[in-house]
Amino acid sequence: MMMETHKKYVSQFTMMGTVISLTLFEPNQTAVEAVYDYLQRMDEVFSVNRPDSEVAAINRYAGIHPVLVSTACFRLVADAIRYTQQYPTSFNVLIGPLVKLWKIGFGGHQVPSAEEIQQRLALMDLHEVILDEAQSSVYLRQPGMQLDLGAIAKGYFADQIVTQLQQAGIEHAIVNLGGNVKLLGVNPLTADQRWQVGIQAPEAPRGYPALQVEMPARTVVTSGIFERYFKIGNRQYHHILDPKTGYPVENQVDQVTIITEQSELAEVLSTVAYFEGPKRGAQLIEPLPKTEAIFIDHDQHVTVTSGLTPRRKGVFTIE
Ligand code: ADP
Ligand code: MG
Predict the structure, then answer these.
(1) How far apart (Å, rounded) are the C-alpha atoms in residues 21 and 13?
(2) Are 291 and 302 in contact (CB under 8 A)?
(3) Closest Cα partner for 227 from 136, 313, 150?
(4) Which of 225, 241, 274 to mutate to test the pocket of ligand 1 (most atoms within 8 A of CB)?
């Protein structure tokens, strides 16, 4: 049987502090530019580093007045609040004040005092967030409260981009937002039409994935502690913070990869499963449809959920 010939068309750009790459299997500069423009607009809405973004305005007017926001902003904030209610011990979109206090990954870090941490924890109460859907407004009632969408936003963008590509008539694509991967359609370059996604291990050099997973169109999202952290003596402080204690989570997990259909959900679950670890994390993932997890611990020991079938050394497959 002759296969239709396809080539890869890879576009790359740097945005949102990370490398964005879009792989298409047909030349389509219009689609590439639409993705670029979309992310540019989203950066203008969501960036906490731009004083004029909508999220920056919500944070700046905390304790002062509600802020009118775009539909995209309202939706993502509402989703993030809903996930915070669902996973209160691990995921909290109000973690902004703590992230700013620790400054992990941004230089000038130090271990804050217990008192400073307590003050920040007091600013993370969901009851102090007022969402008004009719107005499309968000109000943080206490001064000092701050939204941080860092653990969810890229997933939302990946989902939106894939929908937009589909609407533009594109059938196959790989969207990679700084390691958050979302696949569209079947792989036109392999005989079995499945995709192979490499999972980068914390200790392995870039480009040498520890594991390969063969799958249909899914999203693959990893949360790990190897990219942003600082060390004082033997103690490592990393950027996933415990919303109950205010300190970086301490456990045996190096990274968690979630494979599922919706990238926004994958982002949240990767943080939640990171907290829960391979045992409770797997219990939480198993009942979810079309959702799998891969845990890698500090000793490079790998634990996977039941939908990941080993094929050969380092290779798993998902039906
Ligand atoms: P990365 O940015 O490396 O992809 P994650 O997706 O795991 O990492 O998100 C980590 C970011 O999410 C942190 O930099 C911080 O802004 C925010 N964050 C940290 N801890 C939490 C938490 N417990 N709940 C929600 N957001 C968090
Ligand atoms: Mg994440």
Answers:
(1) 7
(2) no
(3) 150
(4) 241
Question: How far apart, in whole angstroms, are the C-alpha atoms of residue 229 and residue 247?
Answer: 12
Q: Which residue has the tokens 């937009």?
A: 164
The answer, yes or no, to whether residue 206 has pLDDT greater than 70, is no
Give the contacts of 198 (CB within 8 A, at least 6 positions apart): 209, 211, 212
Pull the structure tokens for residue 41. Answer: 């607009």
Using CB distances shorter than 6 Å, the residues near ligand 1 are 90-92, 95, 99, 148, 150-151, 223, 227, 239-241, 243, 267, 271
Question: How many angstroms does the Cα of residue 4 sit away from the middle of ligand 1?
Answer: 42
Q: How far is the CA of 45 from the centre of ligand 2 (A)?
A: 19
Q: How far apart are CA 296 and CA 301, in angstroms?
A: 5
- Single-letter residue type at 296: I
* Pair 244, 280: CB distance under 8 Å: no
Q: Considering only CA atoms, which of 216, 220, 213 is closest in space to residue 184?
A: 216
Length of the chain: 319
User: How close is the Cα of 242 to the center of ligand 1, in Å?
Assistant: 10
First CA to last CA distance, the chain? 24
Ligand 2 centroid to Cα of residue 216, in Å, is 21
Amino acid identity at 135: Q
How far is 253 from 245, CA to CA, in rounded Å?
18
Structural domains in the chain plus CATH codes: 47-140 (1.10.3980.10), 186-317 (3.10.520.10)
Cut 0.90: pTM above it: yes
Residue recorded with tokens 């008004």: 132
| Atom number of ligand 1 nearest to Cα 152 | 6
> Which residue type sits at 109?
H
Q: What is the pLDDT of residues 141-192, one digit of tens each?
A: 999 999 999 999 999 999 999 999 999 999 999 999 999 999 999 999 999 9
**Residue 244, CB half-sphere, CA atoms under 13 Å: how many?**
7
